[in-house]
Structure formats: C-alpha cells, structure tokens
Amino acid sequence: MRNIGKWFLLLNKRLYKKVTFLLILVLIPLLVMGYGAVAREESGLFTVALACEKEDPTAGEVMQELKDGSNLIRFVICDDPETAKAMVNGQRADAAWIFDGDLEEAIKRFTVDPARKNAFVHIIEGESTVPLKLVREKLSGVIFARSSRAYFLDYLRQNVPEVKDATDEELLQYYDNFAAEATFFEFAYLDGGSRTEDAPEVNYLLSPVRGLLAVVIVLGGLAAAMYYMQDEKMGTFSLVPQKRKAPVEFGCQLIAVANVSVVALIALALLGLTVGLGRELLMLLLYTLSTALFCMLLRRICGSVGVLGTLLPMLVVGMLVVCPVFFDFGALRYVQYLFPPTYYIHAANSDYYLTMQVVYIAALLGAYTLTGTLLHRQ
Questions:
Q1: Which end of the chain is more exposed for a tag (fewer CB within 10 A), N or C?
Q2: What tens digit of pLDDT does each residue of 122-142 get?
C-alpha cells in the first residue's frame, strides 16, 4: 500500500512538470473568468425599453419587477417615453412598453370596461414577430398579478350582494389569504427521468460552462493517454508485468483526470452552478471513471501518439457540436451517447442519466477489453 501511495504521488508530481497539462488547467479559470464577466453584463435574447408617461409608484414597481424577473429578456427602464421610442427607432431595443401615468386607476378602469380606449400599456415594435409575441406573455403575467385584485373586487360587487357593506380592504384579505398549494406543472423528461429539486436556475449565458468544462476534462484525459504512450515508448513501465499494464494505465489516467476534475468542480462552485455537494461528487466520480476509460479506449484504437494527436482537435470540436454543450440536437441523440460529456451534462438535472453513466462505464470497460483482443494491443 505504501508503494502505491508513493507511486501515486510521483505520477501526480510529474504531471505538473508537463507544460501541456498546466495549460489545460489554466484553461479552466480562463473559461470561468470569461463567462463570468459576460454574465455580469446586462444581456438578453430580446431588449425591451420600459417607460411611464409620468412618475407613478405602481408603474415603477411593475417596471422594476420586469427588470429583475428575467434572464432571457433584457429590460431597460427609460426616463421618459420619448427615450424608449428612440431606442426602438435606433434598433437598440426590440420593443418599447409605455405605461399609463396613473397605472393603478387605469387598471381599475379597464377592469370595469375592458375596451381599447381604456388600455393602459402602449406597445411599440419595429416589427411584429412570433418571439416578440411570446415576450408579451411576461408583461401579461406581471400585470395579471395586479389586475386580478381589481377583477376580484369588481366581480364580488357585481355578483355577491351579501358583501355590499364590506370594505375593499376586508374583501382583499380573503384574496391575499388564499394560497393555492396545488402544483400546476410537473416537469419530466421523455426518457422517464425527473428534474432534480436542487437544480439551480442558471443564467443562460453560463449554461454552457458545465459542458465546456466537461470537454476540458476529456482533453486532460487525452493528454494523459499521449503521456502514457510516450512512457511506453521510453520503457518507463518496462518492469511492470504485461497483465498489470491495464491497471497502471488506468491509474495514470485516473490521476490526470481527477486533477482536472477537481479544478473544474471548484470553478463550478465559484460560479454557483453546482447542484448540491453530494450529487456533484457522485457525478464527478462517475465522470472521472468514464473519461479515464474513454481515453484508454481511444489510445488503444489509435495505437500511436501521432494518430491520437491528429484526431484530438476533431474530437474536441465534435464533442462541442454533438454533445449538449450549447444546443441539444435531438437528431444526434444516439451519437451523443458515444461521448462522456453527454452523461455528465444531463446528470445535473436527471437521475436517469446518472444511472446511464454507470451503464456507459460498463460498456467502455467491455469495449476496452474487446479491442485488446481484436487489435492485439495492450
């Protein structure tokens, strides 16, 4: 056991003397800092300018709620309607939403008479598109939370004479005290997996980070595979019996991949992208094992540093395109299953992929054994 520990420390120390391995480790904080800086900037798939005809507390609350309530839509609060219109005309905003100067009273008027003349939000758009129509649903949701109170009072006054002596404040107590405990929506995956409860809400700009780090971890494993081939050529493990070469290679792989994985986990934690320490450690353990076996299999198939080095850039680009790093292409689903990042990315939100990763590890182990027999390579 002491020899194994000493062997582990020496191999680990040797890794940090290799420039390429250090560059891979440096790549992780560079990715994190770059994406973190972008995510801190105001951004969105669509930009909507917000303004009010005159200063109004209710309209101010609505605009602030819109601004704070979405990562996909960028809301910009303007000082006056003219500025909001200018942003649309200058193509700096996709739309402008201009609120009535006395929003609370305007909502009440619309509740009593929902006619066009009583509209209280004026929408200006450069062109009417389906995505912008969907963006308006965000406005409807925020307005409904306020207009429903007025509808509630109006309905009671019109249809329930027994409450004629009650004040609005007394009636609204019933409205505010009602809490719907039923769950309206339940999310599930087509493969039968369920979304984990502790999965964080992620800024859409940061969502590719886990996938990018997963690819970097594979890159570390491929580098370790080339180091091992160089060691074999130099006779570093010549005293190791042939039947023990596979465990030695696995150990070399595991050390390199584990080092990169730990740095990646720290990066995810700093960005607030982890899904719970216990789950992250389990995911990382399975991913480290699968990546080590995946790189061992590629090393055995390629057979030389030159072939693996030629394949490496294409493999990295292929994983970025095929695996669900930026986009999840359903048509490529079965191709995705060939690569380790697919399971690691999905496992953050799906128990199904956490289980499938174990199956994937077993499949890699079988493929590694089979290729050794068929190709007659160690």
A1: N
A2: 998 877 777 788 888 888 888
